[in-house]
Amino acid sequence: MTLKDILQAVDKLSREELRHLREYVEQREWQIHPARGSSPEERIRLIRSAASAIRQGMTQEQLDEMFAAMNGHNIE
């Protein structure tokens, strides 16, 4: 499969599929090129993207439990 084939396939994706693809690509970029050297704005965007991926599929109750657990433990 060539890049041209991939781009043609991307042209056929729905808005929701494009959103999932964007998140996947951002996560993949993070794996290949960590945020070291990135601007603060880029790091914030990456953190928000990661948080969105974590929240996906979780209920509000699960999110509340996760936040309570994170806020309840101090790391020394």
Describe the structure in brief:
The chain is an all-alpha fold and 76 residues long.
Describe this structure in words.
The chain has one domain. The longest helix is centred in the N-terminal third of the chain and has 18 residues, at 15-32. It has helices at residues 3-11, 15-32, 40-55, 60-72. The chain is flat, with a radius of gyration of 17 Å. With 76 residues, it is mainly alpha-helical. The N and C termini lie far apart (50 Å). Helix content is 74%, strand content 0%.
Key descriptive features of the protein:
76 residues; mainly alpha; 4 helices; 0% strand; flat
**Morphology call:** flat
Q: Hey, roughly how much beta strand do the residues contain?
A: under 5%
- Poorly predicted spans: none
The rounded Rg comes to: 17 Å
Number of domains: 1
Class inferred from helices and paired strands: mainly alpha
- What is the residue-mean pLDDT, rounded to a whole number? 84
DSSP, total strands:
0
Which range best describes the helical content: under 10%, 10-25%, 25-40%, 40-55%, 55-70% or over 70%?
A: over 70%
For the sheet with most strands, the description reads: none
- N- to C-terminal distance: 50 Å
Q: How many helices does DSSP assign?
A: 4
- SSE order: HHHH
List the helices and strands and how they pair.
Blueprint (H helix, E strand, L loop, with lengths): L2 H9 L3 H18 L7 H16 L4 H13 L4
Helix pairs in contact: 2-3
